[in-house]
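Board notes (copied after class):
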Amino acid sequence: MEGFRPGASGAPEGPCARRALDNRRMLLFLLALTIGSGLGMQGWNALFSNFAVEAAGLDGLEVGLAHSVREIPGFLALLVIYVLLFVSERRLAALSVLTLGLGVAVTGLLPSFWGVMLTTLVMSFGFHYYETVNQSLTLQYFSLAEAPVILGRLRSAVSLTNIGVGVLVWFCARSFGYPQMFGLIGGLVACIGVWALFQDPSDANAPLQRHRMVLRRRYWLFYVLSFLGGARRQILLAFATYLLVRKFGFDVSRIAALFILNNAINAVLNRQIGVFINRFGERAVLRTQYAVVLLVFLTYAFCDTAWIVTVVYVLDQLVLNFAVCVNTYFQKMADPRDIAPSMAVGFTINHIAAVVIPIFGGLLWLWDYRLVFLGGAILSAVSLVVTRHMRGPGEMKVFLSGDQNSS
């Protein structure tokens, strides 16, 4: 990791011990916070459904409202641009994980509808704002060849963390109540956030980021792929597991086994995502993802064989991680000063569908569940068509030289 310049084109500047040290510090900083973020979010997910029913007494509508509230901060990620007027990105990253931890820790103490709404909102702001800043810092501090590798390793760390959370919750559930379990997980996350507040891995030579909303015509492909990716993701998150339970009768133990299997596979293979991107390019990797997801949606819609659907579910969870290509492709076309505001814009665009898809998909499900997955298949086909506009490494240079004055 020597000679990396934040926002550089990927070519080393030459030996630079101080800069290499800064990048290693940034990697450690992001790794610790990513583990904290994964611990908090997965811990909340593992406990929330049972807590909502058994402790808070929420009905189906209220649980649905809680999940809608959880997506609001993602939709408001654009506000990160203005928060950065007052707080540096690395400090905002630490504060976000600290906020996530506090939100999770307090959840078990407020077993009511409004208590769940409040803690969910606080927790989600911490999670979504960290994810926005995490992507921004990774693209700024690591070269074009290194960023995909770092993003893959961070996702691998999250997968390992998720497995650890499952084991932790399984053991703690035998001895502790919800306040203690939420408090333990949230407290650990908050400690990581406090540690990060006292770290400064930043590089004084990093390009200054624009602290205003940036919308450029030449970034249109990034915006479109972000929106389509968010729409597909919401369909899969909201309805894929529900299909396994409702149609194929998967019980809690089988869903848990699938969860462990997915994270174990991802922990190993996520580390190779960067290798795939650097070897084949974003266009080829994204086309593979969209083709596989198209097959996944069609299988969900028409297959009646449980083991085939199970295999497809695992495959879907694997290729879902290829979505990092959208950001690494953006890194190659972007003005280095646009990375922070553009990650906020992209994150907001990605979550637009989160407001509509679960409700609209639920209505379609009441009519015919196949329509939900056929809609996902159409989105995947559109995504495949859009990738025709992506450029290879050689074409990117021509693109940038021709559009550098366009905005």
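Comment from the instructor: The two ends are 33 Å apart (CA to CA). The chain is about 75% helix and 0% strand.
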